[in-house]
Amino acid sequence: MNQALEGVKVLDLTRVLAGPYATMVLGDMGADIIKIEMPGVGDDSRQFGPYVKGESAYFLSLNRNKRSITLNLKKEKARQLFIEMVKKCDVVVENFRPGTMEKLGLGYEELKKINPSIIYAACSGFGHTGPYSQRAAYDAVVQAMGGIMSITGEKDGKPTRVGPSIGDITAGLFSAIGILSALNYRNQTGKGQMVDVAMLDCQVAILENAIARYVVTGEIPMPAGNRHTSIVPFEPFETLDGEIMIAAGNDGLWGKLCKIMNREDLIADDRFKTNPLRNQNYAELRPIIAKIIGTKTSKEWLQILEEAGVPNGPINTIDKVLENPQINAREMIKEVYHPTAGGLKMPGVPIKMSETQGEIVKPAPILGQHTEEILKELLNLTSDEILNLQKEDIF
Questions:
Q1: What are the pLDDT tens digits along the chain (395 aa)?
Q2: What Gene3D superfamilies does this protein's entry cite (predicted)?
Q3: Against a cut of 0.85, is the pTM above it?
């Protein structure tokens, strides 16, 4: 089966998370990802634990479907090789601090002279414009600055960082979307362009209704624990032996919930008839629901809620996620075999397509594993030419 991005060649200069996540998405869809790493060192995340037979599981999970070539871009001959590769490729992706590629003579303005159809994606902390553009950033920094920490955590508690590195991951996803959009535009016009994605911008973009609530009410949103700030009931409730999530997202579902709780009187209760009223009278309503849910086990309630058609779910730990039948039926946990590390389970491809299915074709590469292969394939270099370059510490 052909893949959606088959034939698209990507020069991947990224490291750690945001950039590698973007190129992983493209690789899963069939793009040829040529990961360019520093000789002897490689992507920083190769040094992040935990390790499997000396290989970083962190790196392995983010760099599948890629080939690795080492190039020391501080050397002129390496830069010339890179330029020759740009002529043959479709996309360049980097997540350096703005100005880094320009200092090497490899910024977008230079590369588009070499290949006017090149798509140049730059993913950075604060973007290539604005007063913060030269500041360094990590996930925790943009989570703090972008407002998401201020609305995460227990009610009246301290701001809390979201567990997964959502500052990096959202930037990676938006970078992939930008690249795909630019590819479509190029297909129509033949023109390449620069895609400039800032981690901080992405945090603002996913604030959902927090900005709308502040603009409309003038009240600064604060942490609300696990409840939804606009929908009631929409939060976890304790059972006899644990805790489950219940999400009655509209008045119809609220009515169903009332029936299975044997409290149909609540449907017509003037305090709870509509979602705005349930929000307004949340402090009175929650204890009523909590008392009822506390009378049965999680298993009992999950079955009752499911039969009634009320959205619900267990609060799974990661081990339970890996065992979940729905997740496994959708092939969202895949075991990938690496030549050194052996078999390693990792998340599968979440985009399911009927004609051009994404898939994990190859494991993350060993540092420089494909250097000779890529130089021969893209630049038609001979083995002797490659050996001479190797002697000069070009890769």
A1: 589 999 999 999 999 999 999 999 999 999 999 999 999 999 999 999 999 999 999 999 999 999 999 999 999 999 999 999 999 999 999 999 999 999 999 999 999 999 999 999 999 999 999 999 999 999 999 999 999 999 999 999 999 999 999 999 999 999 999 999 999 999 999 999 999 999 999 999 999 999 999 999 999 999 999 999 889 999 999 999 999 999 999 999 999 999 999 999 999 999 999 999 999 999 999 999 999 999 999 999 999 999 999 999 999 999 999 999 999 999 999 999 999 999 999 999 999 999 999 999 999 999 999 999 999 999 999 999 999 999 998 99
A2: Crotonobetainyl-coa:carnitine coa-transferase, domain 1, formyl-coa transferase, domain 3
A3: yes
Question: For residues 143 and 154, is the Cβ–Cβ distance under 8 A?
Answer: no
Interacting residues of 91 by C-beta distance below 8 A, sequence separation 6+: 8, 9, 10, 11, 26, 31, 118, 119, 120, 121, 179, 183
How many angstroms separate the Cα of 19 from the Cα of each of 25, 76, 241, 245?
10, 25, 42, 34
Active site residue ranges: 168
